[in-house]
Each structure stands twice: as structure tokens, then as C-alpha cells.
Recover the amino acids of this structure.
């Protein structure tokens, strides 16, 4: 995975609550096991009509092209546990999701796939939505090292993140990569384990 330290970029304002994983990536696109190639199907039923992009939907608007930050409402990622949902988001180019709350399984799946889900108070999320309406191409800065989000209007807010998950994101590692950092220790343990039980027998 790509390492994450800080990011400054445009914010996609998706003002919706209880966005479920079937909306993020509909079930008909779950037939593949690769993690890539899902971005074009992100929010498919919201982005397309009769196979053509809906120009009014926020993710289709030119001003938000390549925006890496998604701002949205509470309980984002509810519904099924499909890991394809974060796959689609990352493949689309989103690296950060800011919301008042997330569904637990989706929240955990984000970290496993290089996405940073940030929980901010609802009043602060509403403030960011207001700024996005007032400022076309509204931008925010996300600093994972110092655990802050900020914008040019003076907003600065701290967020919490599990230290282990933070370390993995900073290093660009998933849980398997992290375990492999201790490969020599694991190999040594297994070797000694085999010798110990061989001697006992």
C-alpha cells in the first residue's frame, strides 16, 4: 500500500447519511477478487443512468475530479461487510473519508486497504459542508502524524486513531506486511519449536 503521512486536496461533499455498502459498490460487481478495477463502478446506481454519467451527481462533477477526500454523513458504510466497498473507493482515488460516524466493519476494512476514516463531531462536519458550498473546490489538509484536519478558513481539529493502525498507514503496510517485518523472528521460533518437539519424541 502507499504510505500516508499528510494530504492536502479537494473535498468531495457527499451530503448523505446511512450510506450502505451496496450503494458504494452494488452487488453485481462483486464477482472479482482483485482489488483493482472497481473505481468505475463506485456509487454506480447514483452516478449512472442508462449507462451514462449523471452530470449533477457530485462525484461526476469536473471540479471534484481526482479529489482524494470524501466528506459525508453519519453511519457511512453500513450494510453488508463487503471489502469491495473500500476497494472501490481507493481505486477511484479517495484516501480519506471524514464523517461523524462509520459502520464498524467498514471502518476496520478501511485501514486494511489504505483508507483513513476520520471521525469528527457532527457540528464540525456540517461546518465543512457549509464551507464546501461557499468555496468551489474547497480543500482540506489531513495530517496523520499530528492527527489533525484543517482548512484555509481557520478550522483545525484533532482526530483519534489507533496507534498500531496509524503506524501501518505511515509505513504503507497492511497486516500481512507488518507480520513479515518479523520474518526472521518467526522463522527462528518455528525452527526452535520443531527442534524442541523432535528432542522430546
Amino acid at each position: 500500500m502507499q504510505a500516508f503521512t499528510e494530504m492536502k486536496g479537494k473535498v468531495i461533499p457527499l451530503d448523505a447519511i446511512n450510506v450502505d455498502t451496496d450503494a458504494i459498490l452494488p452487488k453485481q460487481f462483486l464477482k472479482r477478487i482483485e482489488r483493482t478495477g472497481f473505481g468505475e463502478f463506485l456509487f454506480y446506481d447514483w452516478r449512472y443512468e442508462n449507462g451514462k454519467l449523471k452530470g449533477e451527481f457530485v462525484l461526476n462533477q469536473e471540479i471534484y475530479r481526482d479529489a482524494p477526500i470524501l466528506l459525508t454523513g453519519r453511519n457511512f458504510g453500513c450494510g453488508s461487510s463487503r471489502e469491495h466497498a473500500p476497494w472501490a473507493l481507493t481505486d477511484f482515488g479517495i484516501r480519506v473519508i471524514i464523517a461523524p460516524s462509520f459502520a464498524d466493519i467498514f471502518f476496520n476494512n478501511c485501514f486494511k486497504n489504505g483508507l483513513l476514516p476520520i471521525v469528527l463531531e457532527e457540528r464540525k462536519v456540517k461546518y465543512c459542508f457549509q464551507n464546501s458550498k461557499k468555496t468551489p473546490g474547497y480543500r482540506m489538509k489531513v495530517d496523520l502524524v499530528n492527527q489533525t484536519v484543517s482548512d484555509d478558513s481557520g478550522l483545525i481539529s484533532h482526530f483519534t486513531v489507533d496507534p498500531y493502525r496509524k503506524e501501518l498507514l505511515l509505513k504503507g503496510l497492511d497486516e500481512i506486511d507488518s507480520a513479515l517485518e518479523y520474518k526472521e523472528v518467526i522463522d527462528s521460533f518455528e525452527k526452535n519449536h520443531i527442534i524442541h518437539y523432535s528432542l522430546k519424541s
